[in-house]
Write a structure and sequence with these properties.
154 residues, Nuclear Transport Factor 2, Chain: A
């Protein structure tokens, strides 16, 4: 019977892994003064968030894409009414600025449903631009904001 032999690179990787593992067994320490906030200025928010009306085309487009792609539904939002702001930066001022809004959405099935949404500074793709999170009451099919879209409000 022939003995198993491992290539030199495998043996080197195993020894290196054991060495790194042994070094990481030391106790954890807090950051020293140089490691604390060293050139980490953090996010700088201006608090300039668009008005509620600016998010409506985005909501209508994303609603149609979600309904047609994931739920095989032909529902579309045909219009909005009674759109108003319900809160702006409802928490501490150092949190990400958000404008919370609510309104009514008219759908192609003839029903009027309440829609809750927020506009988020630097909440767009990869942190660029403003992002929009929204929920149509009664059509939160994956229960992301359940119950009755309450998690979409402040």
């Amino acid at each position: 019977m022939r003995a198993l032999t491992f290539p030199r690179s495998f043996r080197f990787a195993a020894v290196l892994g054991l060495l790194c593992g042994a070094l990481s067994l030391g106790e954890a320490r807090a950051a020293n003064p140089l490691e604390l906030n060293f050139w980490l200025s953090g996010p700088r928010y201006d608090g300039q968030v668009s008005d509620c009306d600016k998010a409506l085309p985005t909501i209508a487009t994303q609603f149609w894409e979600k309904e047609s792609s994931f739920w095989n539904s032909s529902l579309k939002i045909t219009g909005f009414a009674a759109v108003r702001e319900i809160a702006f930066r409802p928490w501490q001022s150092d949190n990400i600025p958000r404008r919370y809004c609510t309104g009514e959405a008219m759908l192609t099935d003839g029903k009027v449903r309440r829609v809750h949404f927020s506009i988020i500074e630097d909440g767009g793709f990869a942190g660029f631009g403003q992002g929009v999170e929204w929920c149509v009451v009664g059509l939160d099919r994956n229960w992301a904001y359940n119950p009755a879209c309450r998690a979409a409000k402040p």
